[in-house]
Design brief:
Layout: H1 6-16, H2 27-36, E1 45-49, H3 55-63, E2 67-72, H4 75-87, E3 94-98, E4 111-117, H5 125-135, E5 136-149, H6 156-165, H7 172-181, E6 184-191, H8 195-215, H9 220-239, E7 243-252
Parallel strand pairs: 1-2, 1-4, 2-3, 4-5
Antiparallel strand pairs: 5-7, 6-7
Helix pairs in contact: 1-8, 1-9, 2-3, 8-9
Length: about 250
């Protein structure tokens, strides 16, 4: 399958940058994960890797009283987060920064909590876990979500969709083994519920796709690309039993 071209990415960001979040998750899931973190100080130093427009960053600001550095390589997403942070009066606690996850520009051992929702896979899970380990203080916690297979016989359309974006996607057991191999102790894990896919992600995505369709009604290429984007929530609606997002909570040994 060919890689997406510039026009695809233009429309992709036209859709995704206007969503509350760019992947599955929710405030309730964030609270559940935080409750599993051990030994967090009262005002933890938090790093959010691959933050996107910062839906989960803002949840963390509500759920904790700590300071948060939020990193993403896509400058327009960081600009949106900066605007949201300013509007909420959080600039003294939340610092968005344009940077690559692999080179976040942060000192080793400087965070009590590293958080990443649906992003670590983009640089390779084991490499990302090693980076997170180095950024945490001894005893610090890591929370991340990752897509995993649930059945070995997904329909071809589902397999093709994940092969395009995450060809190395594995099983729950693979991620658990990677966590342990990278110097962490597993504190807990749980599967994100289906509402975590829909409430702040796929439902607003489908509404945004409809808006962008209207804006590009005379552009057949744009309509074809929007059809591709619309296929993702439709596949989940039909085939969600074949895969899941798992939330992992671990402590640096």
């Amino acid at each position: 399958m060919s890689q997406p071209g510039p026009r695809f990415w233009q429309l992709f960001f036209e859709v995704y940058e206007h969503l509350p979040r760019q992947g599955p998750g929710s405030a309730a899931c964030a609270a559940r994960a935080l409750a599993l973190c051990r030994d967090l100080p009262e005002d933890p130093a938090i790093l959010d890797l691959g933050c996107g427009v910062g839906g989960q960053t803002l949840h963390l600001a509500e759920l904790t009283s700590g300071s948060i550095v939020a990193v993403d390589h896509h400058a327009p997403s960081i600009a949106r987060l900066r605007a949201a942070v300013a509007a909420r009066g959080l600039a003294h606690r939340v610092r968005p920064a344009v940077a690559d996850m692999a080179e976040a520009g942060q000192l080793p051992g400087s965070f009590d909590l590293v958080w990443s929702e649906g992003a670590l896979y983009s640089i390779g899970l084991r490499r990302a876990l090693a980076i997170c380990h180095d950024l945490l203080r001894p005893g610090g916690s890591l929370v991340f979500t990752d897509a995993v297979w649930r059945r070995a016989d997904p329909p071809p359309a589902v397999r093709a969709s994940f092969d395009l974006d995450y060809p190395s996607m594995g099983w729950l057991e693979d991620d658990l083994a990677a966590v342990l191999a990278c110097g962490f102790t597993l504190t807990g894990h749980f599967t994100l519920p289906d509402e975590a896919w829909w409430d702040d992600f796929y439902t607003p995505m489908e509404a945004r796709i409809a808006q962008v369709r209207a804006e590009h009604s005379a552009d057949p290429q744009a309509q074809d690309i929007l059809d591709q984007l619309a296929a993702e929530p439709d596949l989940h609606r039909r085939y969600s039993e074949f895969y899941a997002y798992e939330c992992f909570v671990a402590q640096r040994s």
